[in-house]
Design a protein that fits this description.
Length: 434
């Protein structure tokens, strides 16, 4: 499906966008590669239909100054599980509003070679960015291609070899208006024997009639390095959330990625990890609470390309009212990935008769010495447990809330403490209709 038919823009428009932004030639070239890929890739209604009618003039016009008043700012950081007064004490954080990074703070870590910088500046300032940016993420799906072509803003995170960060770094991403408002890009490089916990929160503090988030993340995890990614999407109003993430894990590296979705009108999460080194491991988790008439689809994939890799794809979703959830999970073992072990588990809790859940797993194996498995469960709240809690003095809504919290607890206990506390609060409020 041709780009001009959907967005009304040409290759020359993309070249002009890159020129206005003062980007190096290699960035322009990769934007154009994505444009050309969109001309050939098959249609994807879950993506195309939310891009077709949007006005992209604000992105093509380049960056503009953005201001956020204190009330919205405080609301946004609270949705990350951080009190506003605590923000200045964090080891490091960045703030992106719409498509402009307005603030970056990094404490004493600069002395250890850690970089936390706006992505718009990083492509011009750091030569290492060219070696990784849109090398990990390729325009092989329409979602990825749209993002590569239209990205703006975001943050570059670099942790040098051997540097282990005991405290998380934070990224805050805000949408303040309507239309295609956010296409931010995050690039994370964790060198050999290093470690990082990255917590990002995406939110629209005020309701808009129609907003789209088309953000992207690339991550490279070096040999024997570790990266823990936590993403919390807590949208107000009809935001259409379309994040795309690509990760590569080298020998002995460990990746844990957990997107948590609250709010928004439609959600399509596309996440894929490649285990390219011996003994690499990855865990991708999809966590969501869907209410009203929300629609969500998770596309999670792990590809084993080297021997001895381990992977898990986990989905834990609560579906309420007339909401709809679809899970597409895929484990792939390439030839030569001997001794690889992969597990896929989908657990869904339905809270109403009209709630719908679909599970579409896929296992692809090109080598005999591979162990892959899949399990799934779909259930409703136990009447026996509800009755027991009622006899203990809990009201019906309180009893239901406790059971839902228990369903999510295996995920929440692994989150950073403040984030776990906030996630529990959000679940409780959502179940009460707030």
């Amino acid at each position: 499906m041709r780009v001009r038919e959907i967005l009304g823009i040409s290759r020359s428009d993309i070249e002009e966008l890159s020129r206005k932004r003062g980007e190096p030639e290699w960035v322009t070239r990769r934007r154009l590669e994505a444009y050309d890929a969109l001309e050939k890739l098959p249609p994807d209604p879950a993506v195309d239909e939310y891009v077709r009618s949007l006005d992209v003039e604000s992105i093509l016009a380049g960056t503009t100054p953005v201001e956020v008043d204190s009330e919205l700012w405080e609301l946004a950081v609270k949705r990350l599980g951080v009190k506003p007064e605590e923000l200045q004490q964090l080891t490091g954080y960045s703030v992106t509003v719409d498509n402009r990074t307005i603030e970056v703070q990094l404490r004493a870590l600069r002395e250890r070679g850690v970089i936390l910088a706006p992505m718009d500046e990083a492509v011009k300032k750091y030569s290492i960015v060219k070696d990784y940016m849109f090398r990990i993420m390729r325009p092989d799906t329409r979602l990825a291609a749209y993002h590569i072509m239209l990205w703006a803003g975001g943050v570059f995170v670099y942790v040098p070899e051997g540097v282990k960060l005991p405290n998380p770094l934070y990224g805050v991403f805000l949408i303040t208006g309507e239309g295609l408002k956010q296409t931010e890009h995050t690039l994370i490089i964790v060198e050999d024997n290093a470690s990082l916990t990255w917590v990002e929160g995406c939110t629209a503090p005020v309701k808009a009639k129609y907003s789209v988030h088309l953000g992207g993340l690339e991550a490279w995890v070096g040999r024997r390095a570790r990266l823990d990614l936590y993403s919390v999407e807590n949208w107000a109003g009809p935001v259409h959330h379309r994040p795309v993430k690509r990760m590569i894990v080298e020998e002995g590296g460990v990746l844990n990625a957990t997107p948590i979705a609250f709010g928004g009108e439609t959600i399509l999460v596309e996440e894929a990890a490649r285990l390219v080194g011996r003994g690499a491991s990855a865990k991708l988790q999809s966590v969501a609470l869907l209410t009203e008439k929300r629609w969500s689809e998770s596309r999670l994939e792990v590809v084993h390309e080297a021997p001895g890799g381990k992977s898990e794809i986990l989905s834990r979703v609560v579906v309420k009212d007339e909401a709809f959830d679809r899970f597409r999970g895929k484990l792939v073992a390439k030839r030569g990935a001997k001794g690889s072990v992969g597990r896929m588990s989908c657990n869904t809790l339905l809270l109403s008769e009209k709630a719908v859940s679909e599970t579409i797993p896929a296992l692809e194996v090109e080598d005999n010495d591979v162990e892959f498995s899949h399990e799934a469960s779909v259930g409703r709240l136990s009447t026996e447990k509800l009755y027991y809690l009622r006899t203990m003095g809990f009201a019906e809504d309180e009893a239901a809330s406790l059971l839902v919290q228990g369903f999510f607890e295996p995920i929440f206990t692994a989150l950073p403490f403040d984030l776990a506390v906030e996630a529990r609060k959000i679940v409780e409020l959502a179940l009460k209709g707030h």
